[in-house]
């Protein structure tokens, strides 16, 4: 019992020292580090994200027409890659990661594996089309980079 009280006091001292050390680090970094939204204290939060109202073509306008075309092509390819990445993360990652999870061979009755695979075929078809599209975009990027690299203009 005495040993437990000693350990508890030592643990309390450790926590106090650790808390003060973290506070000093936080103060040294910046005051804004501690401004974290807490649901229990602040039931309403505002998301202040900038909203761009101008289109991509308006942002690319320069006096050089050739440069405008080159930048437009690369910007469009970057947008396409970003969309493909988002689609992969939201549509395909979980399906590939969790296929067949949750069921063991002994718990599945006759034919369940075939039914599960049959339902997965449409997902695999969509994945095949997605991979083909990714391949086309990558080939296009490589071709555009090759043309830019070898261009004499």
Supply database-style keywords.
single chain, 153 residues, mainly alpha, 2 domains, 4 helices, 69% helix, 0% strand
Describe the protein's topology.
Elements: H1 2-29, H2 56-59, H3 65-98, H4 112-150
Describe the fold and architecture.
- InterPro entries: WASH-4_N, WASH7.
- It holds the Pfam family WASH-4_N.
- This is WASC4 protein.
- The protein has 153 residues and is mostly helical.
- Helices cover 69% and strands 0% of the residues.
- The chain has helices at 2-29, 56-59, 65-98, 112-150.
- The radius of gyration is 28 Å and the shape is flat.
Q: What is the total domain count?
A: 2
> Please, what is the average pLDDT?
81
Largest pleated sheet: none
N-to-C order of helices and strands? HHHH
The whole-angstrom Rg is: 28 Å
- Report the β-strand fraction as a percent range: under 5%
- Helix count? 4
What spatial form do the alpha-carbon principal axes imply?
flat
Detail the poorly predicted runs. none
| Number of DSSP E strands | 0
Binned, the helix content reads 55-70%
């Amino acid at each position: 019992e005495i040993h437990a009280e000693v350990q508890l006091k030592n643990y309390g001292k450790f926590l106090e020292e650790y808390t003060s050390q973290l506070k000093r680090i936080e103060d040294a970094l910046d005051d804004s580090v501690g401004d974290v939204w807490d649901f229990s204290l602040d039931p309403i939060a505002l998301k202040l994200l900038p909203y761009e109202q101008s289109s991509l073509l308006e942002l690319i306008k320069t006096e050089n027409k050739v440069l405008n075309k080159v930048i437009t092509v690369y910007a469009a390819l970057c947008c396409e890659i970003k969309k493909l990445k988002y689609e992969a993360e939201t549509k395909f990652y979980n399906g590939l990661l969790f296929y067949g999870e949750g069921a063991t061979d002994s718990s599945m009755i006759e034919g369940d594996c075939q039914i599960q695979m049959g339902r997965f075929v449409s997902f695999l078809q969509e994945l095949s089309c997605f991979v083909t599209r990714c391949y086309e975009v990558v080939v296009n990027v490589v071709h555009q980079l090759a043309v830019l690299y070898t261009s004499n203009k």
